[in-house]
Specification:
Chain lengths: ~190, ~190
DNA sequence: GACGGCGGTAGACAGTGTCTACTGCGGCCT
DNA sequence: AGGCCGCAGTAGACACTGTCTACCGCCGTC
C-alpha cells in the first residue's frame, strides 16, 4: 500500500520532492532519487529519458502548487483589487520562503528543460491576473509594465531575502514591512483606492 | 610572455573567466579550467583547496568589475540624485545583460563560499549609496527600505529579463521602458524633485 | 500455449572533485 | 661549495555522477 500502488513515475517524483525539501536542488541526483524510490539506478530512464526531464517533472509540481496557492488566495480575498494584489504578493513570497529548495529549482533554468515549463502554466496566468488587478487599482497606469515591474520586484525580494542579503542590509527578520514598501511603490500609498 | 609571467593562480582565474563568458557557470569544471591553463588537473589545488574557492575567486572579479562600473558612473553623473540613481540602475542592468554568465555565477550561492564574498565589498556599498541618494530624492521616505525594494527590483528585473520571461510577457526587446517604470515606482514620477 | 514487448536490473563508460604519493627544482643554511 | 628542505606541479586512485547497452522476467495478447 505504501509503494507499489503508485506508478514508479510518481514515486520518483515524490522521492525527488522529499530530497529537494531536505537537501536542496544540488542533492537531486538521479541515482539518489532512484535509491530512495527503491529501484536501480537505471530504472528512472524508462520514465524520464534524461535527468532534466525528471527534475522538470519535480519542478512542475512546484509550479502547480504555487498556482494552486495563488488561486485559493485570489478566491478567498474579495476586498478590492489592491488588497487582492497584496494577498497575492504575500502568497508568492511565502511560497518562496516556505519551500526554498523548490523555489530555487523552479528558477534554475539550467536544471530544467528551458522554456515553457512553468511559464505558460502559472507565471503567465499570474501575470495576467496581476495586470488586470493593477488596471483596476490605477486605471491611468500602463498596467502591463507595472505588473512586470512588480513581478520582478517580488522575485528579486524572494531571492535576496532567501539568501539573507536583504535581512542583513535592513536589519529585519520579517519581510512584512519591506513587502508593504514594495506594494506602495507599485500601487501607490495604501489609502489609494 | 603570454603565460609564465603570471602566477598560475591568476592564469586559472583568467581561464575560468573565459570559460564562464563562453559557456556559462556549469562549464566551470576544475579539470577544464586546468586544461585551459595548461596544467594538470591537480595543479589548481595548490592555489585553491577546493572548487568553491576557485569559483569564488572568479566571481570576485565580477564583483570588482561591477563595483568599478558603478563607481565610474556614479562619478560621471552629477545631475542630481534621481538621475544618479537612474544611471546606477542602468549600469546594474547592463552589467547583468552584458555578462550573463558572470552575473549568474555571482548569485549562485551554491557554487560560491556562501557569505561575505561580494556582499560586503560591493553590494553593501552600493546599497548604502542607493540609500543615501534615495534619501535626497525623497526625504520623507524610509530610505533604507526603499533602497532595499529598488535593489530587489533591479535584481529581479535582471533575472527575469535575462531568461526571457519579461521580454515575452511584455512583448518588448529593450528594457528601457520597464526600467523607467521601475524607477518611477520607487522614486516617484520623473518630474519629482 | 508460444511469444512479444514493457519495465526494471546490472554493468560499462567517460567525466567530475578530491586525496595522496611522487618528483623536480630553486633557494637557504652551514 | 654542497647538502637539504620545501614548494609547485604531476600522475594515479577513489567514489560518485549521467548516460548507454545488454539482459531478464513477467504479463497480456493472438
Amino acid at each position: 500500500m505504501t509503494e507499489s500502488d503508485l506508478s514508479l513515475r510518481d514515486r520518483l517524483v515524490d522521492a525527488g520532492m522529499e530530497l529537494l525539501a531536505a537537501e536542496g536542488p544540488q542533492a537531486l541526483t538521479l541515482r539518489e532519487i532512484a535509491r530512495r524510490a527503491g529501484v536501480s539506478h537505471g530504472a528512472p530512464r524508462r520514465h524520464f529519458p534524461t535527468r532534466l526531464e525528471l527534475l522538470s517533472a519535480i519542478a512542475h509540481r512546484g509550479f502547480a502548487d504555487l498556482a494552486e496557492r495563488t488561486r485559493t488566495t485570489s478566491a478567498r480575498t474579495a476586498d478590492g483589487p489592491r488588497a487582492r494584489v497584496a494577498a497575492l504578493a504575500r502568497t508568492y513570497l511565502e511560497f518562496a520562503l516556505d519551500r526554498p529548495g523548490m523555489y530555487e529549482l523552479m528558477f534554475r533554468h539550467d536544471l530544467l528543460e528551458s522554456g515553457r515549463l512553468g511559464l505558460r502554466e502559472t507565471s503567465l496566468p499570474l501575470f495576467a491576473l496581476l495586470t488586470e488587478l493593477i488596471g483596476q487599482v490605477n486605471p491611468d497606469a500602463d498596467a502591463r509594465r507595472v505588473a512586470g515591474a512588480l513581478w520582478a520586484n517580488l522575485h528579486g525580494t524572494a531571492q535576496l531575502w532567501r539568501w539573507r542579503s536583504l535581512p542583513l542590509a535592513l536589519g529585519e527578520t520579517d519581510f512584512g514591512p519591506l513587502l508593504d514598501t514594495v506594494l506602495a511603490a507599485h500601487l501607490g500609498p495604501e489609502g489609494g483606492r
